[in-house]
Amino acid sequence: MKAVKIDLGEGGPSASVASVETTEPEKYYPTIHYSGSEELNIPKEGEMTIRYKKTSSGHSDHNGKTTYNCTIEVREIVGIEKVEAEEQVKLGTDASNALDAIARDLKGKKKSEDY
Fold it and tell me: Is the whole-model pTM more than 0.85?
């Protein structure tokens, strides 16, 4: 299976003006609504793998801006993984620590080459 990561977030009406508290504009995401005879017992947030079928797609041009759209039929939820906030922080910390170690190693090699 080809691994892809596509951020579907779009800037909303206030995207051109960044918040005073943050430099990132707020993003708005498309939603998938489920209605059926079985309750979906899924975590509030995490990663999900689905099987889908794209049933339609198109685009429109308005005021020089192209907007793309498509309808996706979700056929099956294949996998779900809950990602805890502390796990996300740990992953970031581990990556940061690894980069710091590489930087220290490179700095040490640079000094030894100077002599």
Answer: no
101 conformational bin, left if phi > 0, alpha if psi -120 to 50, beta if neither: alpha
How far apart CA 17 and CA 23 sit, in angstroms, is: 9
* 58 burial type by CB count under 10 A (0-12 exposed, 13-18 middle, 19+ buried): exposed
Residue 30 has, within 13 A of its CA and on its CB side, a CA count of 9
- Identity of residue 62: H
Torsion of CA 47, 85, 88, 25, to 10 degrees: 80
Helix (H, G, I), strand (E, B) or coil at 66: strand
Task: Look at residue 111 and tell me whether its pLDDT is greater than 70.
Answer: no
Q: Where are the domains of the chain?
A: 1-82, 84-115
Rounded Cα gap, residues 43 and 83, in angstroms? 9
